[in-house]
Amino acid sequence: SLTPYEKKKHVSKMLHIYMLGSDVDFGHMEAVSLISAPKFPEKQVGYIVTLSLLNENHDFLRLVINTVRNDIINRNETFQCLALTMENMTRMFMITDVQDIIKRHQTQIITSLKDPDI
């Protein structure tokens, strides 16, 4: 079993291989599992790699949508921001599930992101 740090390191290397132009047909589940991680560094790498590697026909897309929904509903502002990065992907793929979740929780997200000192 890999530690979260090792998993993050290997998935980052996988993204690097992909960016160099090679097909990457492995490790997608590890990237998706990083999105579900409880800590920001792992979650961030998971979102970056998932945004880069997955397409609209990918088998793990349903898992990604559920995790994005959970992060948007979550009270943690940084997790909400990471989940909102998936909005670009959902527009591209026309995935209405995530778009509907964002619309429903838009007021909550905006309210939680406001700084009371401003």
Describe the structure.
The radius of gyration is 15 Å and the shape is globular. The mean pLDDT is about 80. It has helices at about 5-20, 30-35, 40-55, 60-75, 75-85, 85-95, 95-105, 105-115. The relative contact order is 0.11. The chain contains eight helices and no strands. The protein is mainly alpha-helical and about 120 residues long.
List the defining traits of the structure above.
118 residues; mainly alpha; 8 helices
Give me the secondary-structure topology.
Elements: H1 4-19, H2 28-35, H3 40-53, H4 61-73, H5 77-84, H6 86-93, H7 96-104, H8 106-113
Helix pairs in contact: 1-2, 1-3, 2-3, 3-5, 4-5, 4-7, 6-7
Tell me the strand percentage band: under 5%
Report Rg: 15 Å
| Form type | globular
Strands, total number: 0
Task: Give unreliable regions as ranges.
Answer: none
- Spatial separation of the terminal alpha carbons: 46 Å
Quick overview:
The chain contains eight helices and no strands. The protein is mainly alpha-helical and 118 residues long.
